[in-house]
Structures are given as structure tokens and as C-alpha cells.
Amino acid sequence: PRPAVRTPAPHAMTDERSAPAASPVTADPAAVAATEATISAVWRDVLGLATVRVTDNFFDVGGHSLALAAVHAKLCARIGRQIPLVELFTHPNIRALAAYLHGAVENPELARAAQRVAARLGRTQRRGRRRAAGTAGQEH
Predict the structure, then answer these.
(1) What's residue 131's pLDDT?
(2) CA 91, 95, 99, 102 torsion-angle sign
(3) Residues with Cβ < 8 Å from 101, sequence gap 6 or more?
(4) pLDDT tens per residue across span 105-139
(5) How far is residue 91's CA from residue 100's CA, in Å, rounded to a whole number?
(6) Where are the alpha helices (DSSP H) in the chain?
């Protein structure tokens, strides 16, 4: 079974100074739809698919890391701006990536996905520190 992501209790005290104030961001639906169409066209081109849905996960429809690098290059060229490659891994479907590109990150589903990524990263870093600490005292 997968370990659960730990989140603060609903009424837990938090340091509100450390968390930035959330400002609701609303993106123009027509602009988001145009971005979704652009992303969809790039996916179809790179993956050789006739159709993709905006909710399809890139890796579930046949994508892999090298194909994602090709999508990254073509998408950056088409939209005329640089996107960190890691954001394509963080937002693996068309709708989530389009929302990210338009700054609409208030979606609870995207927030949960970001929490899962952060938790995974934290576990990986802790595991690496434990391994390094376990071999630090050994002589070869």
C-alpha cells in the first residue's frame, strides 16, 4: 500500500506569515481552451495519436521521458515561452498543464497532486541521506 501524504489537521495552528496569501486566479476560458488545443496538437504529433482527451495522462497514452522532452521543445517553440521541463512531469495531462500555463493553480486537484510530488521528493531525499549516513563510517 502507498503511504498517505501527511497534511496538517483541519484546526492545527500554522504560522500564517510563512504561507503566502492565496489570491484566486481566474484565466480566460477561451485562452485556456486555445492552449489546450495547442498542447493537444503537440501531443498528437509527438505520440502519433489521432486523438487525445484533455484528461488523459501523458504516460498512460504511450508517452515516456524522451517523448516528453520532444513535447517540451515543440511546445516551447509554439507558445513562444520557456517552460521548466519538470512542470510537464508535474502536470501530466493537458488540462492541468494549460491551467498551470495560465496561472490557474487554485484547483484543489492540482494542489493535491503538488502535495504528492512534494511528499515523494521528501521521502527520496530522506532515503538518500540515510544511505549516505549509513556508508559514511565504513572503510573500504
Answers:
(1) 65
(2) positive
(3) 35, 79, 83
(4) 555 565 566 666 667 777 777 766 666 666 655 55
(5) 8
(6) 29-47, 65-79, 85-90, 94-101, 108-136
